[in-house]
Design goal:
About 35% of the residues lie in helices and about 15% in strands. It contains 10 helices and 10 strands. It has a 4-stranded antiparallel sheet. Strands 2-3 form a two-stranded antiparallel sheet. Strands 4-5 form a two-stranded antiparallel sheet.
Length: about 250
């Protein structure tokens, strides 16, 4: 069983900076769904998302727009029916690159320097993980513990995306939404199940210190793929961002 460690200094060690460091190191920026992104997992392993087509720009951390400004560019509409939704409308399985699937690449990114890889130099078999949704530190000593305890969450749930514009987009764009590292995060299985397909109006992380970053990521994904938000969702996002008006929307550009 995974060991849960004391994490009293979690607020000072904001787990999202594992991702932000990756974005900065590679200049991750995506102005539209056709943008190509490079994400560095750990320090040296380059992962190029297969569904991107143009080179990224540099200096993303300095030029990233404020999340509250990006939110004003996101269309506001009432959600469409869920009719026709299936995960297969987005993707069938995690894509592979050089024999390493996307789940393992995200695990390696989010476990950071603590990730211990198996003989295939891909599978994360142990490590220490700062869980963003609960704010706890978890220690895994076996691959089976990670498989059972950690899921890869879509920050914008696919069902939510489907009801807010994705069902009208080409299958290729839906695949990008489902496999974009910007929209993926490792999370405790129980917390991810609790979230289900909720948006910001119906679910926010228990870990309050992560809420600003979480909402900013949702805004970035919805802007990037021209998805919309509901009136209640926008108000919930604005409420969260009122506590962090300088929060950046990483991965997009106005």
């Amino acid at each position: 069983m995974a060991k849960v460690l004391n994490l009293s200094k979690y607020k000072k060690r904001r787990v999202i900076w594992i991702l932000v460091t990756s974005l900065v190191a590679t200049g991750l920026v995506a102005i539209n769904p056709a943008a190509r992104e490079k994400v560095y997992l750990g320090k040296a392993t380059e992962v190029v998302a297969e569904n991107r087509q143009s080179e990224p720009e540099q200096g993303q951390s300095d030029t990233a727009p404020l999340a509250r400004e990006v939110l004003e560019k996101v269309e506001v509409k009432n959600r469409a029916p869920k009719t026709g939704y299936s995960r297969k409308e987005f993707y069938d399985t995690w894509p592979n690159k050089d024999g390493c699937n996307l789940r393992q690449r995200i695990l390696k990114r989010d476990f950071g320097e603590t990730a211990v890889l198996g003989k295939d130099n891909c599978t994360v078999v142990s490590g220490r993980f700062y869980e963003p949704y609960t704010g706890t530190e978890m220690e895994f000593k076996e691959k089976s513990e990670i498989s059972k305890g950690i899921q890869i969450d879509h920050i914008v749930a696919l069902s939510d995306a489907w009801q807010k514009g994705a069902q009208y987009k080409p299958k290729e764009v839906r695949f990008q939404i489902a496999t974009d590292p910007l929209n993926l995060i490792a999370a405790e299985a129980a917390a991810n199940q609790q979230k289900s397909d909720g948006d910001a109006a119906t679910w926010l992380p228990k870990n309050r210190s992560f809420r600003c970053q979480y909402v900013a990521r949702q805004i970035a994904v919805k802007f990037k793929y021209a998805l919309f938000v509901t009136p209640a969702e926008k108000e919930a996002m604005k409420t969260v961002l009122s506590h962090c008006p300088e929060e950046k929307a990483m991965g997009v550009s106005l």
